[in-house]
Structures are given as structure tokens and as C-alpha cells.
Amino acid sequence: MFEKQPEALRKKVQELSSTASVDPTGWFETLYQEAQGDTSQVPWAKLAPHPYLQDWLSQQAQLQEPTSALVIGCGLGDDAERLQVCGHRVRAFDVSPTAVDWCRQRFPQSEVQYKIADLLHLDPGWEPADFVFECRNIQALPLAVRSQAIQAIARLVAPQGTLLVVTRFRDNEGVPDGPPWALSESELAEFTRLGLTEINRVQFLQGDPVITQVRVEYRR
Ligand SMILES: C[S@@+](CC[C@H](N)C(=O)[O-])C[C@H]1O[C@@H](n2cnc3c(N)ncnc32)[C@H](O)[C@@H]1O
Fold first, then answer.
1. What are phi and psi of 67, to 5 degrees?
2. Among protein residues, the one whose CA lies closest to atom 10 of ligand 1
């Protein structure tokens, strides 16, 4: 899934995220606040579950069993709501209070537990989950905090649990342009160094110039 952003929105993201080297996460709240409830001003808002999650779920018989699920950086909540439909006990968090409020307003009857939390400073009390969904968040964080983000995500995967990662991917270890800052093979390999096993990977090529994304499934 890749849509070219309107130029003005692309420039706005570039400007806001220019503070990311000193404050990796602060610009997200500014962007959500300045959107003032207009989803067209949130570049990643699709108002639908991510198609790579939908596709993956359609192939999973066992995930029809209710289990605990956790959505990292949940944005406007569509992926969390999709998992809730499967009957999972879903927790979802985002660093932006405005995004979390927005989720609660969009889905007032939801059973998803939406929380404000910073992946980079997570309370150790956060329980690991059987299914963790990480979609396009690590790529939105600068390289300097990437390892910290990956470690925090890996810790949230329960024994025998599954982690599904959807991210842009770069085929070299150079410094990428961004955001989004595509992940490299060695960055993804950190999940396996942290005790997860990669069990499936699908690559998606879209757009002109071509954007490479991957969906990687890990098991603890
Ligand atoms: C590029 S958006 C992706 C949103 C959603 N995962 C999706 O794919 O539509 C990144 C999201 O992660 C959130 N975020 C960024 N850094 C975070 C952090 N340290 N902890 C929790 N959420 C974070 C942002 O507020 C934003 O909602």
C-alpha cells in the first residue's frame, strides 16, 4: 500500500519532522493537533485496516481463536478495530494524546483499550501480548532510536506469540532519506537477535519510483 502524498502535506511532514533528531516523537502530536479532525491532513490515515494486515489475517485460521493483541503506534485505530472484530482482547497505544482521543471519538462503542504511551519510554508494567502488530512506526523514527524501538517491541511479544511487522525496506545499510526512514536487513535482524524467529516474509513493490515494503512475521 503506497499512495503519493500531496506536495503540501509532504512538505509539512518534512518540516515538522525536522525536529526528530532532538525529539523523535514530538512532531506527531503537532501534526495530529494541526489536522483539527481532518483525516486528509494525516498522511498515513487510510480510514481502513492496512491491506497487508487484512491479507495476512485472511490466511490465519488460528487467529480466529480469541487471544491478546497489541497494536503499536495505533494512529487513528483502524488496525486495532480490525483485530477486535476477530474477537481478540485488543490494547492499542500511541504517543499522541490527540490521536488516542481521535480513536475514542471514531469508535465510541469500541472494546479496544486505547492508551497514550511512548514506545521509547514504556512502563515496564505493559503485559506482553500473543499478537503484536507493528505497522509503519519504526520507519517513522530516526535511526538513532531505532534499536531502542525494536527492543521495546520485541519485549511486548509473549512466549509463543507472533509479531507482524509492516515496513518500508531498503536494500542497503546506508543512511536513508526520510521520513519514512526505510528499515535495512541488519535493522530487521535485531528482532531475531532478540530471540524472535522469522517465519515468513512477503515483499511488496509499488509506485514509480518503486517503493519496497515488507511484511515480516516473527514467532517467539
Ligand atoms: C506513520 S504513523 C503510522 C500509524 C499506524 N501504525 C498506521 O500504519 O497507520 C506512526 C504512528 O506512530 C505514533 N508514534 C510515533 N512514535 C511513537 C512512540 N514512540 N510510541 C508510540 N507511538 C508512536 C505516531 O503518533 C503515529 O500515530
1. -155, 180
2. 137
Q: For the chain, how many structural domains are there in total?
A: 1
- Kindly state whether residue 2 falls inside one of the protein's structural domains: no
Residue 151 lies in a domain: yes
Residue span of the structural domain in which 43 resides: 7-219
Q: How far, in Å, from the CA of 97 to the mean position of ligand 1?
A: 11
pLDDT tens-place string over residues 96-106: 999 999 999 99
d(CA 163, CA 183) in angstroms, rounded, equals: 16
100 CB-near residues (< 8 Å, 6+ apart): 74, 93, 94, 114, 115, 116
Residue 119 CA: nearest ligand 1 atom is 20
- Give distance in angstroms: CA of 196 to centre of ligand 1: 22
Element (H, E) at 11: helix 7-16
Q: Among 94, 112, 143, 148, which residue has the most ligand 1 atoms within 8 Å of its CB, making it the best to mutate? A: 94
Mean model confidence pLDDT for the chain: 93
Is 193 exposed, middle or buried (CB count within 10 Å of its CB: 0-12, 13-18, 19+)? exposed
